[in-house]
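TA notes, week 10

Several of you asked for a full example with nothing omitted. So below is the full record: structure tokens for the whole chain, then the designed sequence directly under it. When grading your own attempts, check the secondary structure regions first.
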């Protein structure tokens, strides 16, 4: 039975822009920075300030699409090992977020866990969240942290620091007939 919260009913958003933000954060962490690099933050702030309201919504929807893609990959990887993705991923994600009280306020953790559980059960995280009303400003950083932690989890599972980013970039290039270089020449 199809759900009105299925991913086929959800806008994809700007996955490329959301991926750029997550990849930038991952690279900052792996470079030994704590995520508060002033130059990096200025770049992200400049990018987000340049977005129109529709552009911001597209990036938000793109982040939800990333969460869905990451959880789909994790679900398949866990099922291959006869494990439940919710049982193995959600507790780690929640406990990590609880250690980040400056970035992730405690009251946002249940929503982020719900997004991950929705995605892990094949539902659109964005549509699942929107049934409870509009996104709040307080949920933006935890949303980014959720996508970041899922990407880092995938990278650790695969022992490849770029796997999650590369996986999504390759999926995007397969779905975009014009590819990153523009229209193909015939």
């Amino acid at each position: 039975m199809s759900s009105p919260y299925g991913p086929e009913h959800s806008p994809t958003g700007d996955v490329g822009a959301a991926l750029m933000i997550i990849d930038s954060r991952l690279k900052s962490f792996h470079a030994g920075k704590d995520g508060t690099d002033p130059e990096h933050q200025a770049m992200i702030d400049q990018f987000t300030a340049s977005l129109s309201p529709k552009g911001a919504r597209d990036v938000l929807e793109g982040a939800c699409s990333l969460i869905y893609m990451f959880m789909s990959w994790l679900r398949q990887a866990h099922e291959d090992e006869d494990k439940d993705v919710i049982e193995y991923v959600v507790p780690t994600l929640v406990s990590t977020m609880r250690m980040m009280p400056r970035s992730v306020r405690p009251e946002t953790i249940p929503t982020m866990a719900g997004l991950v559980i929705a995605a892990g059960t094949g539902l659109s995280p964005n549509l699942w969240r929107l049934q409870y009303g509009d996104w709040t400003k307080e949920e933006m950083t935890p949303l980014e942290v959720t996508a970041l932690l899922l990407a880092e989890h995938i990278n650790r599972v695969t022992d490849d620091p770029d796997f999650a980013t590369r996986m999504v970039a390759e999926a995007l290039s397969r779905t975009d007939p014009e590819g990153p270089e523009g229209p193909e020449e015939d």
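Residues 53-80 form the longest helix (28 residues). Use that as a sanity check on your answer.
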